[in-house]
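User:
Can I borrow your eye for a moment on a structure tokenisation matter? Would you put together a sequence-and-structure record for a protein of your own picking? Please set it down just below, with no commentary around it:
AI:
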Amino acid sequence: MDIWSKKKRSAVMAKIRSRDTKPEWIVRRYLFSRGYRYCKNVKGLPGTPDIVLRKYGIVIFIHGCFWHGHEVDGTLPCSNNEYWKNKIEKNKQRDERNKEELLKMGWSVMIVWECQLKPAVRRQTLLEIEYHINHAYLKRFRQSAVKSYCLEKKKEAPDMVAEGEVEYRKK
């Protein structure tokens, strides 16, 4: 049984934002202050990632623990339990499908949970995000091992760079 009327519940649910939430704001502000430039809520990519770092080939999703069914601290409401269980399970399947599509496209995918941005662990989480961004960048542009090769020496023209001898006509 809900404690509010349908009209009040609808108004409350309508105020829940899907973009520019406080956890997103915390991560974006930190990345910007560290010199990272990004796009936000890119509609052309599967799942509309919250943050896209094109230069680094990374997309970041910032998931709310309730809406995305975090195993650690996501809890289900007591009322209408079956509805919420199905809804959150579908959200988890959609998230996994979007992640797989992004990986196939060559993106590295990071998922940051809302609970990881609580004040007690926020600093550690932000440092880990930066660590993974830097390592993904290095991995992406790491120079492949230099392959050694041998030049075959030709007997007719050793150490010759240009054409063979050319005869010029005399005047």
